[in-house]
Write a structure and sequence with these properties.
Length: 255
């Protein structure tokens, strides 16, 4: 069973990933059959609205991991879209065009409906790269810049040629799946909280296996449980392969 993890973080806040940290991550991933991971940048230790210096440092860490283990780490360029577009476009140039990263990552700096995304989405379309965007429906304490799935769907409708991976199936729930139903350019990743019985099956039934993609959110969640939520879901072998491997292979290019 081949597997690519579309949603991981380098766990050490604000510092270059140590050889020990990377070795632990690779050992635990490979034990679950994960051959490659997408590193989205450090966890949110710099807060929801990182400065330009912090963004640069986070992307430097991802580039360092890619250099150390090119067969294992693919990188996405982490951006705070509230910054000057010239800065963010420069980071895309540095990290994607010259550095070999495969996509962009947006978190909770501003809502996905904000027009400050437009130049960055245009550039993603030109480069033919996907973006991965955090989303969650919260009962309380939705962050000021934290997007709901409905807001991701709004962005997806405005940029139908850009592939968007909407994060956190468990945080998005059935309502989130329904929000993106009519947006064929949006996939949903299986991460977010602990598995809920039947939810992966629901997403596959409504969206098709081609739009559901395995992600763990390591190191907040461990690989074993996150892989098991797909392996133990009532899917056909072909659907499981699609979710665990083929969708990531497709949107990462040659992976
Ligand atoms: Zn994450």
């Amino acid at each position: 069973m081949r597997c690519i993890d579309i949603h991981t973080h380098l766990g050490t806040p604000g510092s270059v990933p140590s050889p020990g940290e990377m070795a632990t991550m690779m050992r635990l991933a490979k034990r679950q059959g994960i051959e490659r991971v997408v590193a989205l940048g450090n966890l949110g230790s710099d807060g929801p609205t990182p400065t330009q210096d912090q963004i640069r440092a986070i992307n430097d860490n991802t580039l360092a991991a890619m250099r150390a283990h090119p067969a294992f780490f693919a990188g996405f360029c982490y951006l705070n879209p509230a910054h000057d577009a010239a800065f963010s476009l420069g980071e895309i140039e540095r990290c994607v065009v010259r550095g070999g990263m495969r996509g962009l990552k947006f978190w909770i700096a501003v809502r996905a409906t904000d027009r400050c995304h437009d130049p960055l989405m245009d550039r993603a379309r030109e480069l033919g790269i996907p973006i991965l965007y955090h989303a969650w429906y919260k009962q309380t304490d939705q962050g000021a810049g934290e997007s709901t799935p409905a807001e991701i769907a709004d962005l997806a409708r405005r940029f139908p040629q850009v592939t968007i991976v909407m994060a956190h199936l468990t945080g998005d729930g059935e309502r989130g799946v329904l929000d993106i139903l009519e947006c064929p350019n949006v996939l949903i990743d299986t991460s977010g909280g602990q598995p809920e019985s039947g939810l992966v099956e629901y997403a596959v039934r409504r969206l098709d296996a081609e739009r559901v993609i395995y992600g763990s959110d390591w190191p907040i969640r461990d690989f074993a449980v996150q892989v098991a939520r797909v392996v133990d879901a009532r899917l056909t072998g072909a659907q499981r392969e699609q979710v665990l491997f083929r969708n990531a292979q497709r949107i990462l290019g040659s992976a």
